[in-house]
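[Meeting: bench + compute handoff]

Bench side (C.D.) handed over the final construct sequence. Compute side (W.E.) agreed to return the predicted structure before the next meeting so the bench team could plan truncations. Sequence as handed over:
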Amino acid sequence: MNHRNAFTRRSCIARLAATLLPLPSLARAATVSAPPWPALQNVLDEFVIERSAVGTSVAVARSGTAAYLDAGRIAFDSPEPFDENSICRIYSMTKNVTRIATLLLVEDGKLSLEQPVAEVLPEFRNLRVAIDIAKGLESRPVTRVMTMRHLITNTSGLGNWTPGSDSGDALHRLYRERGITPGSYGTGRTRPGYGAQPATLDEMVARVAELPLAFEPGTTLHYSIGFDVMALVIERVTGISYDAFLQKRLFEPLQMHSTGFQVKPHDARRLTTNYDATERQVNSAEHSAQDPALPAGWRVQDDRAGSDWLKPPHLLAGGGGLVSTSRDFLRYAQMLLDEGALGSTRIMKVDTARMAVGNINPPNAAEPDEGVGAGTRAMLRTPLIPPGTIGGGGATGTLFWIDPKHHTAAVFMVQVMYGGPARSPFQKRLFAAIDQDMASA
């Protein structure tokens, strides 16, 4: 059961913020359930006051009782409050959904984690691997078999298009030149050095198969497009599109009505604007002159009014294409916490759910760079969330996690790219506030 409490200190904070910075006003009082989360609410307010975020939302459930807390607005140029129904790009949180989708097919008997990928994707029958990816693209035939397990644990050996990944400069440059850029949207697809994206996952995989792997399958944990390739595996095994499969097996049963690869026209007013505050930005003086409403060094990454997510998806990105809300994704997190069921709705068997939140990485896989792509290697031991919890995050600062010890599930939504957890202002303060509230409850 949920109800609204009026936090009188929030009105004080809002008045103080108005005297300090030209900020959007703080959102309406949060929807909370007893006991409230005052330290958590305070830190959300501070994120907005400090202009670390335009707006943000947390949905948290403890022992089955949900609370929704929020602050700020969906964009600098919008009066719409940022709340549990605001639609956000969740980027790499999509990877976890693809992992669960895969395990549903394992439960159905349609896939096996040890099944060779080439049995479903014959394009991968004659793969080659770089002899030393740090030195170049000279290659030899693979000696290990790529399996379904490898695709959903970032151990497939596949590379990635993102600069700074551990796939080797030459390989990820080739990915960009050939348009193998799932999860790249809008003007990001037309930057110099970026080829035209394929129109289908089939075409994307055909292009990938022509290039060498960065590592032998199963030997190395590194950031890759394995989850995007798995989306095509799921399409071929089920005979339906990947988005249709997710809708049928996850989003409809869980009543995640605002989650998918496209924002429905009647929901467009709830779509947030995404901002980029990474170190790649133009100098702050130039930016401030262009748009004084933005904090120094920020730019609009994807405007809510002309967003790619308002249109049919160009390419279904199983590693980074979904949008969702904190309310929707809390239902997903609660399902994982409660071993595959949300109330009376069972999504997967208990054994499958335990596998879903367990460590399914291949044994003895090396980690060449602890800092690269670590947040999306697997559900366990990511630097985005504290030890003892299970979850992951996305490029726009979004997070979700479950805490079995305290029977808690939570989702944090925000829409600012800082370039990774080390540069994000959110995680440490967020979890400290939650710990404080839980200790005093």
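W.E. noted at the follow-up: The domain at 89-263+307-323+348-379 is CATH 3.40.710.10 (Beta-lactamase). C.D. will use this when planning the next construct.
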